[in-house]
Amino acid sequence: MGNNGGFIRYITVCFICLLIYVTGIYKGFENAKISTANPKFAEIEEQQAEKITTQVEIKQTEEKKEEKGEEKSTSSVAASTPEVYKGRVISRYISPYTAKLCYGKVYMKNSTGLDIDIKKLLNSKISFKIKKNDEPQVLIVHTHTSETFMKQEGDVYTESFSSRTQDKKYNMVMIGKIVAKKLNSAGIKTLHDETVHDYPEYNGSYNKSAATIKKYLKKYPSIKVVLDLHRDAISSGDTDKVKLVTEIKGEKAAQVMLVMGSQSGSVTNFPNWQENLKLALRVQAKIEEKYPTLARPLSLVSRNYNESLTKGSMLIEFGTDVNTIDEVSRSAEYVGDALSQVLEELK
Predict the structure, then answer these.
(1) Of the candidates 200, 181, 199, which has an alpha carbon nearest to the alpha carbon of residue 191?
(2) How far apart are CA 296 and CA 257, in angstroms?
(3) Cα torsion at 115, 121, 124, 125 (round to 10°)?
(4) Distance CA 234, CA 319 (A)
(5) 22 to 10, 19, 25, 56: CA distances (angstroms)
(6) What is the pLDDT of residue 30?
(7) Using one digit for the tens of pLDDT, what is the confidence trace for 55-98?
(8) What is the spatial distance between Cα 218 and Cα 221, in angstroms, rounded to a whole number?
(9) Nearest to 140, CA basis, from 176, 168, 174
(10) Which three-class secondary structure string do you get for 301-325?
(11) pLDDT reported for residue 241
(12) Are β-strands 240-248 and 85-92 bridged in parallel, bridged antiparallel, or unpaired?
């Protein structure tokens, strides 16, 4: 009986422990089931998930902003990087009054060795007359069409500066338009050819412009005067460039130069060179009369420059490549005005 009583107590204790254990497991499952089914719990869980997602998105956005900030910073540094300095721009004025050959208001630099009587040529009759009608009297061309100028005034120029451009707002076409407008406004019918003769090949430019001039002369035999408008280029040392300026009416203007060819030296196909020079001397005198210091001494050289194609041809240079657009535009206005007055006197 004693042993049986002990065994019974042992079994009873084991049963109670097993019951407690099973009850605990069941309550755990019930709690988990209740928690999962509880809407409040689901809402909290969803909010936590959204919070985590939002935090991730914020972090990604911040990282993108940082990346963009770095790119922007890099771009700003590149944009603000100064251009590479190439050389200085030096302003000079070439006085016509130091020319050894002069008469009245005409100043000349004679590089030909020919004897020139300015007074006699000025008083000689021009071999043609200018008519104010619908027939073209003047043709403007550009052998070196792409020659250009500086857009803004500066004391230096950089590697990005180019002395040639195809943009007609900034090359010799722009100058031609100003002169043509002046002449047409004065009632002198003027044609302006914008053909680019120096691009893509610079060599042979004068042959190409000669073909253009001949085409116009054939189509319009009424043309008396052909103006080939250029600009000069002057260097100082290895890198510096020179601009030629004077002051007219209180503003800077680019100095201009008439370049006239002749039958001298090796040139043998220019028998009418003095006819061209007669007209050029009158234009030189008129520019000096109306706009003193604007014109450099007229340059007489042993070249042709297509001037033998008519008896009224002239090559005129406006400033240099580092004169500004404003400076050469003013000069074009003044030259156009002087040309108009000279040609009106040839009616």
Answers:
(1) 181
(2) 5
(3) 120
(4) 10
(5) 19, 5, 5, 43
(6) 47
(7) 445 445 454 444 444 444 444 444 556 789 999 999 999 999 99
(8) 6
(9) 176
(10) CCCCCCHHHCCCEEEEEEEECCCEH
(11) 97
(12) parallel
Indicate the burial class of 137 (C-beta count within 10 angstroms; 0-12, 13-18, 19 or more): buried
In the predicted model, what is the mean pLDDT of the chain? 86
- Residue 121 pLDDT exceeds 90: yes
Residue 228 and residue 192: Cα distance in Å, rounded?
A: 10
What tokens were used for 341?
A: 């007055």
Measured in whole angstroms, the distance separating CA 94 from the mean position of its chain's CA atoms is 27
Q: What is the DSSP string of 243-306?
A: EEEEEETTEEEE-EEEEE--S-TT--S-TTHHHHHHHHHHHHHHHHHHSTTSBPPEEE-S--TT
CA atoms within 13 A on the CB side of 336: 22
Q: Is 126 helix (H, G, I), strand (E, B) or coil?
A: coil
Q: What is the pTM of this model?
A: 0.77
The residues, any chain, with a CB within 8 Å of residue 234's CB and separated by 6 or more, are 92, 241, 242, 244, 320
How far is Cα 102 from Cα 215, in angstroms, rounded to an integer? Answer: 37
Rounded to whole angstroms, what are the CA distances from 283 to 18, 259, 315? 129, 12, 12
CA distance 136 to 83: 47
